[in-house]
Design brief:
Number of strands: 8
Order of helices and strands: EHEEHEHEHEHEEH
Radius of gyration: 16 Å
Strand content: 25-35%
Oligomer: single chain
Helix content: 25-40%
Bound molecules: 5-O-phosphono-beta-D-ribofuranosylamine
Largest sheet: 8 strands, mixed
Length: about 190
C-alpha cells in the first residue's frame, strides 16, 4: 500500500531531515512510504539546503504574498491536494493555521514538551525552567486548538542535575528525531 506524505517546515528543518532519512522510499509494516512534497513558507529557511542535499524538491510558498491567513492556507491545501497527500507532517511549521487548513487536511505536529504542559513557542525554555523532574516530546493530530489535538505519541526524558539549556535542548531534539518517524508510521497505519 502506497502512502504519500508531505512535510511543512519554516526554519532549521532537522525533523524534516530525520523523517526523510528514516521513511522516504522505505517499506515499513506493509506500506511503501513516499515523501512527495516538502513545503516552506520561509524563503530563507535553513531546511531548504537540507532538501537540496537530500535530493528532495522543496516548494516555497511565502506567506507574505497573501493578504489573509485563509488565502495562504488555501494555497497550501491546493498544493497538498495536487500531490494527493495522505498525511501532512508539520515539522517546525511556524504559522497559525485556520479552519481552511485544519478542516480539510489530516496533519500531525510535534511539540517539544509533555503536552498539555507548555503549549506555545517557548516550550523548551519553560520546561527547562520548571520544577519538574522530567521533560519530553509530544506528537499530536492538528486540531483547531494550538498544540491541543489528540496525542498520538509522547515520550519523557529525565532532567539531569546541573545540565545547561543547550545540552537539554539537544537531548529534546534527539528525542524528537527518534519519536516523530515512529509516530508517523502509527498514524499512517491508522488511516
Ligand atoms: C522542534 O523543536 C519542534 O518540536 C517545534 O519546532 C522545532 C523545529 O525544529 N515544533 P526543526 O526545524 O525540525 O529543526
Amino acid at each position: 500500500m502506497k502512502r504519500r506524505i508531505a512535510i511543512l517546515f519554516s526554519g532549521n528543518g532537522s525533523n524534516m531531515e530525520a523523517i526523510i532519512r528514516e521513511l522516504h522510499q522505505k517499506e515499513v509494516e506493509g506500506m511503501s512510504i513516499e515523501v512527495v512534497a516538502t513545503i516552506t513558507n520561509n524563503p530563507n529557511a535553513r531546511g531548504i539546503e537540507r532538501c537540496e542535499r537530500l535530493g528532495i524538491p522543496c516548494e516555497v510558498i511565502d506567506h507574505r504574498a497573501f493578504e489573509t491567513r485563509e488565502a495562504f492556507d488555501e494555497a497550501i491545501v491546493a498544493r497538498l491536494k495536487n500531490h494527493k497527500v495522505d498525511l501532512t507532517i508539520l515539522a517546525g511549521f511556524m504559522r497559525i493555521l485556520t479552519p481552511v487548513f485544519v478542516h480539510s487536511v489530516k496533519a500531525l505536529n510535534i511539540h517539544p514538551s509533555l503536552l498539555p504542559l507548555f503549549k506555545g513557542a517557548h516550550a523548551i525554555k519553560e520546561s527547562y525552567e520548571s520544577p519538574m523532574k522530567v521533560a519530553g516530546v509530544s506528537v499530536h493530530y492538528v486540531s483547531d486548538e494550538l498544540d491541543g489535538g489528540e496525542l498520538i505519541a509522547q515520550e519523557a526524558i529525565a532532567k539531569i542535575e546541573g545540565e545547561g539549556i543547550e545540552a537539554f535542548e539537544a537531548r529534546i531534539h534527539a528525542l524528537e528525531h527518534r519519536l516523530y518517524p515512529r509516530a508517523i508510521i502509527q498514524a499512517l497505519k491508522a488511516l
